[in-house]
Every structure is written in structure tokens, then in C-alpha cells.
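Troubleshooting log. The previous structure file for this entry was overwritten by mistake, so regenerating from the original sequence record. Sequence copied from the archived sheet and checked twice against the printout by T.R.
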Amino acid sequence: MPRHRQPAPGTEQPPTPEPAADGAPHAAAEAPPAAADGAPSVAPPADAGGALHAAPPTDAAVTPPPTPPTTPHPAVHPVDESRPLGRIILFGIQHVLVMAATPISAIFLMSATLRLDASLTVNLLSAAFVLSGVGSLIQSLGPWKFGPRLPFVMLPGGAPLILFIAIAEQHGLRTATGAVILTAAFYFVVLPVFSRLLRFFPALVIGTMIVIVGVNLVKVGAVLVTGRPGEPGFADTTNLALGTATIGFTVVFYLLFTGILRQLAVMLGLVAGTVLAAFLGRFAPDGAAEGGLVSLPQLMPFGSPQFSLIAALPLMLYSLASMAEATGQTVVNAEAVGKKIDTRTDVPKTVRGDALTSLFGGFFGLPLMVTSGENIGIVRVTGVRSRFVTAAAGVVLIVIGFLAPVTRAISVVPSAVIGGTAMVVFAVITVLGVQMLSRSDLDKHTSTFICAVALALGLLPILVPGVYAGFPPNVRILLESGVAVGAFVAAVLNILFHHVRPRIAARLTTTRTESDR
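Regenerated output below.
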């Protein structure tokens, strides 16, 4: 037997082939050399006669080509997600049905207080719907630097309406419309300064303000059910039954249904309440068929605007509180839909949308148009976060503004039914404010004290109407805005306790340390 040489330790030598019986060497089973790129190359074996034979492919010898890396597509956020057109329209109509009472009640209050004739009232109502739709489109779609691209709806009403009426009673309707236009321009002037002050509006301040906003809105919804104290029909039992039944219908639908029907529980509850009102004789849709088919808003219905800085001053002062309120609503809207935003860039977009819509609205005889926190409750209750739904609501509002029969049909829905629906939706906003406060270190005594004082002063004019009746009119209008008072108090106390006081304490500590040396 021939002896094989043993390789030296640490070396790798191929084995020496043994000769076959016929003297021809066998093919060596050696490993193929590595190619330049590191992949093994396959060497075909040679037979006894030196001919090369192709080696059959094996799993060890064949390497598949490398798969090019793929870049995953970023997931679309639910806010930016499009849905089937039919569902978007349905959800948009739901927003409109819940919100329609606001422009209607605002224009009717304005008309009754300023004694406007019926044709002018219809014209203003048409303009209110159209401008609400335009503003909703701006805030939801966010063209250029206008609108935060969040599910927002814009409406008239609230404190800006009261200020508009007060200016009109003192200085005339033309001066009131001029004050709206001046205030809209004032937004653009002070916005760069306001953007730098946003760091003084943390979650503690905004959460406090949202709670006050929610409580105030719940009161507005409740007044639609009960009426105002001292007026005929206050606390009518039938209206109370309609409001309570509407809430009950909404709860039942939300409890029993799933999927899209559950998301439409608010609208279904409103429809069921309207049907019940018809059975009780509180719904009369006959007036919806009277009048023309199309209603076009009239430009400058009171004549050319007159501009007076003194007359516009209360509205300009309120605009500062309005920007603070827009800050809170932008943050809480983003919280409701689960979208991270940059307040330094997104809040100014909301304010610009308010300013642009109010500028247009002033030329159509409307008060300031502001982003509404009311629809945030609908978003939270239904779980539908797409901004295209509120954009669809904007389109529906514009259509309603041009179609007079639809406007009249919505206006005859009983206020008690709308109020019952609104109370549920508005209460959700209060809960959102509480959730935001829960993340504001309320376990610290300083934060608790700031929140308590701001809530006490902010809720005072809401819970006790007329408490500031002895003050001058312009001062009274500002003090009676609980949202403005609460936001101002929370912001000032936050600055004093969390910014000024630590700096003073640090300086005193430094002074004492230097004196000890």
C-alpha cells in the first residue's frame, strides 16, 4: 500500500490522488477556488482522458443572484387616507348635520338683534354656509401655508358674533364689517410675534383651555334643548324629552352597531330624534318648499365697509385670545387623530386659514370665522380621522349655501334634537382636555394650582351669566369670554411659576453662593 504524506500542522493541502487499477488517476475532490468577489467558482472535473465534464448543479455550488434592496413605502396616516367616495360623503353629511345649527343660530341671533329683514337674513345665511365650506376646505386640504391639513370645520358664532353685534349697535353695520376686515388683517400682522410665544402654551395651558371650551360648548348645546332662562318655553318637557331621546338613540346605535353604522351613530341618532319630533308634532318641514331654488350670497350687503381702529379694537383684542384658542384646538385635533405636529409651523397655518376666511367673510357681511372645536368630538366618537371627510363637509356646506330649499329644510330641524346631539359631541371635547391635563404633571402642586385658578376664573362667566354686567361694555365683552380669560390666566401663571420664579431663585442662589465665598 502506498503511503500518503501527512501535511504539516496548520497547512491545508489537497490530498494526493491514488492511482486506479489501470494506472489512471481519479479526479480530486477539491474545493473550488474563490472568485474575486468572494463567490465560489465551480471547476468541472476531468476524466481519465483529460476531458472536462460539466459538474451537475448542487445547492452548495449554485448561488442565487443577490436581491436588490427594496425601500418600503411609508404607511399613509389615517388623517391623509382617502376612503370610498360614498362613505366620505356620508361622514361629511354627518358633520354638517351636527354643525348646521351653529351658522343658523348665529345668523338668526344677529338678524333678530339688529332687526334685519327676511331677505337680508336669507342672504347672510347663504353666505355663512358658503364661507363655512370654504374655510373647512382651506383648513382640511391646507393649500400652501394656509390650513394645518387636519379634519377641521370653520363656523361663525360665539364671542366674535357678540362683538360684531356690539360694534354694529354702537357704530353701525358698515363699521362692524370694516372691523372684521381690519381684524383679519391684524391676524397676519401679529402672527409672527405670536408664533414666538407658543412655547408659553404647554399642555397645561392648552388642556385647561380645552376643558373650558368643552364646558362652554356643552352649555351651548344644552341651551338649544332647554331654551334660555326667562324666555317663553324655557325647560319645556317635550323639548327635554326630545333632547334626552336623541342622546339615547345615539347611545343605542353606538352600542348595537359595528363598522360604518357605528361610525354614523351620531347622524343616525339625530335622524331618529327628528322622526320622533315629527310624531310629537314638533317638526314642520312645509316651509322648506317655499321660495326659490338657488340663493347666491351678496357681496357687501350693508354697503361699503367703514374702517375705524377704535371701533375694531375690542375685536382685535379678542383675536389674540382666538389665536390662543386656535392653538389649543390644533393641538387637541392632532391628539384626537393621533398625528404628530409641530406647533411652531402648524398652528400659524390654522390662524392663517382663520384670517383668510374671515377676510372674505367680512366682505359678505359676516362676523369673524373661526375654526370650530365642535367637530373634534365627532372625529373622536366616530373614529373617522380622514381630513377628506371634513373637506367633503365643506363641499356640502357650499352646496347648501347655494341651494335655498336645503338650507330651509335644515333650519326646521328642531333645536332640541340638534342640542341633544351637540351635547354628546361637545362633552367629548371636555374629555380630551382632561386627557391632556393628565399628561401635565398635575401631581405637582404648582401645576394643580395654575389649573385650578384658570378653571375658576374661566368658568365663572359661563356658570354665572351676567357676572360682569357692571363693567364697561368693551371690558365686559372680553371678561365674559371664559375661554379668553382662562387661557390668559393659565398662560400668565405658567410664565410666573415656571419661567420667572425659577430664574429669580437661580439668581438668588448664585448671589448667596458668591457672598459665602
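The CA atoms of residues 63 and 485 lie 73 Å apart. Archived copy saved in two places this time.
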